[in-house]
Please model this.
Amino acid sequence: RLRVYNNGGKMKNKDWLILIIIFFSIFIVLVSSGEQKAEWKEKIEYEDEIKIIKNPEVPSVYVLKVFDKFGGLDVPKEQTFDNPVDVAISKEGLIYILDSKDNNIKIFKEDGSYIKPIGRVGKGPGEFKRPWSLQIIKDKIYITDTGNRRIQIFTKDGRYERGYKVPIEYGYGMTFDSKGNLYMNTQGLRSQKIISIYNDQGNLLSEIGDLVGKSIMYYNFNLIKRQIKEGKIPDSFKNNILLITDRNGNLFAVHRALNKFKKFSPKGELLAEIEIRTEEYNNIYKTFLRKN
Model:
């Protein structure tokens, strides 16, 4: 409760002005807080005892729009792409595009002008056979050279530095952290864990992440076909994941055949397992079973 008095017990004009200002200040705060509350139109649903908060103002699917492009059919052959599989951008704005079929890295400026390629097909240092991913770490380019079962490291201007062997099988889910450690998807092939971690010398550090289903010794394609015909996802598909790390060293594993992804700490501890529930995913799942 607020009381304002003057010496004579009567309120002066200045006192009235103060009261009016206080009143309108409180009124504005109440109205603005009410408007903020009204803007949030969340909808809370429960599915299988899971609390789901939906915001109708945010679309479940985002549509990407092209604002610029380069390349095409009317450029020199060395600037075209045959099977681009990965891309990285340096802090200087240079664009590095890895082409698995051309077996090289194509470097472009930010405006799309071509600079030069790195690498060629082969087994020697600086040569590739079906490279699959690249990442820029501390001004070095790390390449997973899957066909030659090795990692190759280059300077950003394309000079070969060194490489090391890793037991790359059939999985293509691979990524690096800021220290150059390699995280590789095992797919459960002769392994009881879903991810293997190697240092930048090729030494196995640890294996993390529980499998979905059972480990497999080999790919039984007859069994895989039969399970798909029955509307089931084979265990080898369930453990096929894509990997990426963030700047804090956390690891994210996206299950390609399941509607969920996992988050691991830098120490390999499971922090979260998040299920994706959208109609778009269900349509993809149904299409996969129909086409296979």
Summary: Residues 1-39 form one domain.
